[in-house]
Ribosomal RNA small subunit methyltransferase I (Bifidobacterium goeldii), 246 residues
Amino acid sequence: RGTVVLAATPIGNVGDASARLVALLQDADIVAAEDTRRLYDLANRLGVHVNGSVVAYHDHNERNKADGLLDRVEEGATVLVVSDAGMPTINDPGLAIVRRAIERGLPVTCAPGPSAVLDALALSGLPTDRFCYEGFMPRKHAERVQHLRMLQAERRTIVFYETPHRIADAMDDLLDAFGPDRPMALCRELTKDYEEIRRGTVGTIHQGVVDDPPRGEMVLVIGGASDEEAQAAAPATLSVEELAVL
Ligand code: SAM
């Protein structure tokens, strides 16, 4: 039997590719990549020749593709799973093959490496002993408000992924939900030449986003609720009246 290997890829700085990733790209029998063009681009930049076959493995086909790839693992193949950047399965494809491998009793392992969530958390200066990863906020305003309401009493440091075209709306809703005083960091273009960490409070970061809209990829890190904030938090569910005005 072979193995499924999830491998993290750089989130901006190609120098973050691990020696293990390089060896796997060279030696895996099959590379299942979120975007095959980006995979070849990474391989070129690393000076690696991908000897195995490369297949597209993305959000839209991962459930259908997982079993076929696992059939090959059963026959002895090493199947390397990579996403466009960072750790597969973290807001990226990969979970379907992990689940099916577990169900079928096939080996699955990981070559860990860069992921924006831990990079941002570590640089934020906020408590790291307990945190919750929230991925992307819901896109629709009403759902976002409802979701943030649920998080008002959360005591752990909260990490969100965000995009430049939604950051202004997201900051408005974060200010409404958490008030201006919660400590916060906006971590942008991590590991790249223009890496920038804006540290302050929800209020100061909100103002900064208005004055100087951040571009590129970004992660938002927000301090958890204090005892008083947790106690004062509004009920987690919006009333019918509140929903009506959103
Ligand atoms: N699998 C990836 C990981 O492990 O971090 C996440 C993929 S998700 C589709 C893309 C989001 O990750 C971006 O919108 C941004 O929030 C965050 N991200 C990825 N690279 C980043 C970087 N270099 N700097 C800041 N945020 C980044």
